[in-house]
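User: Sequence in, structure out. Go.
Assistant: Echoing your sequence, followed by the structure tokens.
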Amino acid sequence: MRPPSCLSPIDRQAWLNRTEGRRGLHYWEGFAVQKFPMTAEGLLRLEEELKVLKGEERPAIIRAIAEARAHGDLSENAEYHAARERQSFIEGRILELEGVIPSVEVIDVSRLSGDKVLFGARVTIVDEESEDEKTYRIVGQHEADMKNGSISVTSPLAKALMGKTVGDTVEVPAPGGARSVEITAVSFA
């Protein structure tokens, strides 16, 4: 595990000297660092994103800013302002990823089995009112992507499903009122 690059040399050394704490927290020099559960695939995606941001996006945006500067008056230069805004986004995302990646706790989902809903499980649910069937994978908060059927372990739906088994009916809080869903399948593949 690597320490975040934003730490001072003293804090970096303290990070390296840390000891395992309770409840997924690491303690060093009196500060608690939260651990984030994540699948191995999720961690690889974040590391790849960081690599692309640092190796491709950052140099490209620096070139774009230099090119926009060459066009003259910066106060009325839309290209320059757009490039600076993009640079701000890229640098912010890099800082975020450098803070999250060292705090990841990889959960090996391949060793899990059974019909109980746990982190990493693919859960098929049926809405008892509308009979809609949906399948979700419960993953870490930094790898959740609703478009791909991945929901965060901290979401209300995942919290309601955790620990339940196939055949259980669960009340899930929703903006329009609580919904009842039945768990029809659980897999770890």
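User: And one key feature?
Assistant: The two ends are 27 Å apart (CA to CA).
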